[in-house]
């Protein structure tokens, strides 16, 4: 019996993730040297894991408030105030979610009416387009170019604004390019949002991981008149190496938070209590561990970018996250061809850039949250591969 | 802390080439910096961190000894502490605040060997008031390294 006519059209029309295709190629092989991961190579710092264990020992295994533990929301409020210079009321403006992924889905479902257009910059994280579609919105990607360091220009966004535009999604630092955004350009985007009465969903999951001393991460929510039209999404996965804990949060005006909470309470009820307790420990005592990891990532970033440029694959120095995005167009291969042949001949995995949208074609995402030895042997594989195809 | 020292403390066997890559310095510059740190006595040496529990011969015994001393006019504990530190059996020797003065770690091939060092060499030094010897039973962590290594191979090879 074919069940395909039983499936929702909305789901059927969503294409398979390019990452999944590539994942299946990699899965059949042994000892792959992988730069394909999207998470830190560290385990969660021990003091955070220990807090989770202690919580379980004490028998803290119940549901929490739908919004999340009050103590965690207060901690988040203090943290966001300190790092982003925005004050949110922990009782009405902060919602604890199962990762930023859930928060993004909630935001889309809470705001989008059928046919509403949502602008987001590409190359981008794989879930923006499907999350918009699942909420019956219309995805409107705007290409960020390598010439601009993949930091989208406000004027390019403005060109795509129509009477149907409702939302702009931003993600800085960006997965997969590591791009960051200067405050001046961010202000221009804010001006467009105010002039056109748009809401911003800003995914700032990588905001702790920025590497250049003169650069300070700025959230669009902190700009004048923006807090009331912004949903700030953040979480614990990247900075605290807590991907498996699945914990994120949103900070948004009370009406939007309430709308997101409505969906969250019926679909998720609450985030797991063990993860929430661990997150409190992360916020209160985790900054030293984050700084150590950040310093390590920075060394690896400098190494991998230098090497790519040296071997003839032009690569911007990404300001944040933990991805390098080298340009492979000079080889005459497509991203998929390059990635498959590299895997086949050198057993090195890097994700084809087109998995992150059409404007990622011609590039590869290489995660440098990996051991230096592994990075170096992957780079060796790249060099051999380039020599072979010359 | 100096970046080079941090790297070497994490892994003293980093090759010069690795260090030069990580610090974006030439290999010659890295070698020069290391030589400076060695010459100035910042780096005292390089040693393997060993879990002696896992050695086939058991790795001998070690003991941590609390030593109380009579300080001397003019030099405090320095002369006597330096004298104790020079014994080959002494692995580390540090002046402590609190209830005793020196923390001394001794290693030897047998319980007897360590005991006789304490009884004959250490306690008999003029100025040593008392000693309390604690034998090491099991290692959980040594010099920043866990004895039971955690698994880290759980990551999916490709993820978004």
Largest interface: A-B, 28 and 13 residues
Largest sheet of chain B: 4 strands, antiparallel
Number of helices of chain B: 5
Roughly what is the average pLDDT of chain B, rounded to an integer? Answer: 92
Protein model, in words:
The complex is a heterodimer of chains A (390) and B (160). Chain A folds into two domains: 143 residues, Alpha-Beta Complex (Aspartate Aminotransferase, domain 1); 227 residues, Type I PLP-dependent aspartate aminotransferase-like (Major domain) (Aspartate Aminotransferase, domain 2), CATH 3.40.640.10. In chain A, 42% of the residues lie in helices and 13% in strands. Chain A contains 13 helices and twelve strands. Chain A has a seven-stranded mixed β-sheet, sandwiched between helices. In chain A, strands 9-12-11 form a three-stranded antiparallel β-sheet. The longest helix of chain A has 24 residues. Chain B has 160 residues and is of the alpha+beta class. Chain B has two domains: 37 residues, no CATH class; 83 residues, 2-Layer Sandwich (Alpha-Beta Plaits). In chain B, 31% of the residues lie in helices and 21% in strands. Chain B is built from five helices and six strands. In chain B, strand 2 and strand 3 form a beta hairpin. The longest helix of chain B has 13 residues. Chain B is extended. Chain B starts with a helix and ends in a 14-residue tail after the last strand. The mean pLDDT of chain B is 92. At the A-B interface, helix 2, helix 11 and helix 13 of A face helix 2 of B.
